[in-house]
Design goal:
The protein is of the alpha/beta class. The protein has 8 helices and 18 strands. Helix 4 links the parallel strand 13 and strand 14.
């Protein structure tokens, strides 16, 4: 079964908590702090599997959670890092954040890896908080949470040349003629219910991948029939071969059929019609074919689209069409058409409010202040000079840290620690 779009939930692992511990041994009852650090949480990693061609496996598993990091332990032992989750996808998979629909990654190369969510950092153990004046800290850091997302996986086939056109125009027959592919072929609409790929080899200046995109109908860009499911697969195509029933076997006017399909492609993504298009007038062995072939040339060659006669039934005309496609590809960039990645916040752990902080009395007369904004302020402020110390005093008053300490019952002479800075409180 061909599945090309699924929604899954992914979550990185939480970092392990730091440990509060003190060294103990025979004859040593008041050893220093030896609490280890928590392990890092596992990452969510997507990998291109060259053996996969569908997203079918995701129909049965929709939630992927990386392992949490283990807590730190005594004797300075760090907790183990959480195991990463490796998610295998076919080449051509686009990963979108479900709420914003922004592209997080476009994976096209075999073996390509991409970390979509990084696991949370492990918390530091109490060994990191010892100072000459406070040699027995009884606190540690908690591990950081990681992000989680609902994401959409979309498989967009990677093909150099795409066969498009109305149902029963003969696309699958052409694919079979040109390649070793063996698509299902029958005399009724929508024989092809999923895209088929084949490789055109040997006869032209370069090998290229040819894709049979299932038949489009009017209204496809608005979801009529299976239109949207099929249209997504033309987005990486460099050259279109528009197969049209020149014999009008189905009763459709060939010129109008081409215009109708091109209109649906344009509505879906107008940039697609800027790519080269060849028109294959199929079923030329039918009497009406010659007249309609002339009409197609008069209508579309002035617009820059070459029209070639073709009889898939008698295997005539396919060489000229494929040769023209190869000629266009010769001057076309060889790189796969990529989707711009426009979501750049997905690899970090959960961002903390820079303005938030916590005040904890870890023991009588000893207070701990923590917060991302406070930590950053300490990192770029030089407390040793007068200007820096004045900025520090102003910051902790304006942010409400002094008021919060008073609410906790701090008194003059008590000790306050803000990460690596420790000082005596004087109101």
């Amino acid at each position: 079964m061909f599945v090309d779009r699924v929604k899954i939930h992914i979550k990185g692992g939480k970092g392990g908590n730091g440990c509060v511990s003190f060294y103990r041994a025979k004859y040593i009852t008041h050893g220093g702090p030896d609490g280890g650090d928590g392990g890092k949480g596992g990452d969510i990693v997507f990998v291109v599997d060259s053996g996969a061609s569908t997203l079918m496996d995701f129909r049965y598993k929709r939630v992927f959670k990386a392992e949490n990091g283990a807590d730190g332990e005594k004797k300075n032992r760090s907790g183990a890092d959480g195991a990463d989750v490796i998610i295998k996808v076919p080449a051509g998979t686009v990963i979108r954040e479900a709420v914003s629909n922004k592209v997080m990654a476009d994976l096209t190369k075999p073996g390509e890896k991409r970390v979509i969510i990084k696991g949370g950092r492990g918390g530091r153990g109490n060994q990191h908080f010892a100072t000459p004046t406070r040699q027995a800290p009884r606190y540690c850091e908690a591990g950081k949470e990681s992000k989680e997302y609902d994401v959409i996986l979309e498989l967009k086939l990677i093909a150099d040349v795409g066969l498009v056109g109305m149902p029963s125009a003969g696309k699958s027959t052409i694919l079979k003629m040109a390649t070793n592919a063996n698509p299902k072929i029958a005399a009724y609409h929508f024989t092809t219910l999923s895209p088929n790929l084949g490789v055109v080899r040997g006869k032209f200046s370069r090998d290229f991948v040819l894709a049979d995109i299932p038949g489009l109908i009017e209204g496809a860009s608005e979801g009529v029939g299976l239109g949207l499911d099929f249209l997504s697969h033309v987005e990486r195509t460099k050259v279109f071969i528009h197969v049209v029933d020149a014999g009008a076997v189905e009763g459709n006017d060939p010129v109008e059929s081409v215009r109708a399909i091109n209109a649906e492609i344009e509505k879906y993504n107008e940039a697609l019609l800027e790519r080269p298009m060849i028109i294959a007038a199929n079923k030329m062995d039918i009497p009406e074919g010659e007249e309609n072939f002339k009409r197609l040339k008069e209508a579309f060659e002035p617009e820059g689209m070459k029209v070639f006669p073709l009889s898939a039934a008698s295997n005539q005309g396919i060489e000229e069409i494929l040769e023209e496609a190869a000629k266009i590809l010769k001057d076309y960039p060889r790189d796969v058409i990529l989707f711009d990645e426009d979501y750049d916040e997905f690899v970090d752990e959960i961002p903390e409010d820079l303005g938030s902080f916590t005040v904890t009395e870890v023991e009588k007369g000893y207070f701990l202040v923590e917060g991302v904004g406070v930590e950053k302020m300490i990192g770029y402020t030089n407390i040793e000079n007068e200007q820096g110390f004045a900025f520090f005093q102003k910051y902790i008053r304006e942010k409400g840290i002094v008021d919060a300490l008073k609410e906790k019952g701090i008194k003059d002479g008590d000790i306050v620690r803000i990460y690596d800075l420790e000082f005596e409180f004087i109101d």
